[in-house]
Structure formats: C-alpha cells, structure tokens
Amino acid sequence: MGKEVERKFLVSSTAWRDLAEADIRIRQFYLAAAPGRTVRVRISDGTSAELTLKFGSKARERDEFEYPIPLAEAEEMRAFAIGRVIEKTRHHVRHRGYLYEVDVFGGMLAGLVVAELETPEDVPDEMLPDWLGREVTGEHKFYNASLALGGIPEIAA
Predict the structure, then answer these.
(1) How far apart are CA 76 and CA 51, in angstroms?
(2) Which residues does residue 98 pair with via DSSP β-bridges, in sequence order?
(3) Cβ neighbours of residue 129 under 8 Å, at least 6 residues apart?
(4) Which of 1, 86, 95, 130 is buried deepest, with most CB atoms within 10 A?
C-alpha cells in the first residue's frame, strides 16, 4: 500500500511551460466511485495502463494501490466507465527541488489547468512557484473523480 500525500492548485499563468521536462497524454475513467473510495483506469500515451484504487477522505492524504494492467483490457473496461472519460496532458515541472505535475485538461474540461505537488512536507508559501494560483486541496470539485462524474467547476485562479 502506498500513501498519496498531495496538494492541488489552480494554475494562474503559463510561466511553467518553459520549465516542463516531460509530458504524458492521459485518458482516464472511473469504474466505481463512492465517498472515500474510487477505482480508476488510466491509459498513458496510448501505450500503458494502470488500475488504481484510492481510499480515504482526508484533504491531503489517501491510501493508494496501483497495478499495471494490459492495455487491451484497459480499453475493454472503458465500456464500464461511469461519467465522462477525462483527457489531459500531464507536464512534469521542477521548482526548488519539488516535482509539480501540471495537468492541462482537454475535451469537456478544456481550460482547466491544475498542478499537484506530492510530498508529505509542508512547503511554505514562499517556496511555491509564482505560476500557482489558488490552492484547491480538499475542494472535491477539483478532484478527478468529481470532474468525471459531476459538473464542470467554475475555473477561478
């Protein structure tokens, strides 16, 4: 079992783009979702797939189990998806020794850009990059399961 400890932020500028080290095209969907638990399939760059189970309802910390699955089976499971399929490109951006994952959403969620910082450390605000906007950690409407199942949140950085 792994622990996912993360903070989420809206992104307020494009200054991060010149710092991006990698990008991954992601399609993901949910097979089950209930308060405090989700089952997700993620396909990365059309070449690999993972099944992820997440448990917990704390704002910053959840239990997470991830398993590689055959790509063909992941594609078959899409028929059982609940809600919409999320399309996004994830960019890896380093700032002051921390790795930020900047997700630029496409499709019905186009215009939404969210950065995640996975670390158990309490990073002080002065150490955060200037291109981060409002912190949305704990605001469930910005979590991927909510984006797949619910309405599209009003985007305000």
Answers:
(1) 13
(2) 95
(3) 15, 16, 93, 95, 96, 100
(4) 86
Report the candidate in 110, 124, 99, 3 with the shortest Cα–Cα distance to residue 56. Answer: 3
The answer to whether residues 10 and 155 touch, using CB atoms and an 8 Å cutoff, is: yes
Active site residue 30: yes
Catalytic residue among 30, 67, 98, 143: 30
Written as tens digits, the pLDDT of the chain (157 aa) is 688 889 999 999 999 999 999 999 999 999 999 999 999 999 999 999 999 999 998 878 999 999 999 999 999 999 999 999 999 999 999 999 999 999 999 998 999 999 999 998 889 999 999 999 999 999 989 999 999 998 677 764 4
Residue 21: what residue type?
Answer: E
Q: Which residues of 109-131 are buried (b: 16+ CB within 10 A; e: fewer)?
A: beebbbbbbeeeeeeeeeebbeb
Residues 6+ apart with CB under 8 A from 117: 6, 7, 9, 98, 99, 100, 101, 123
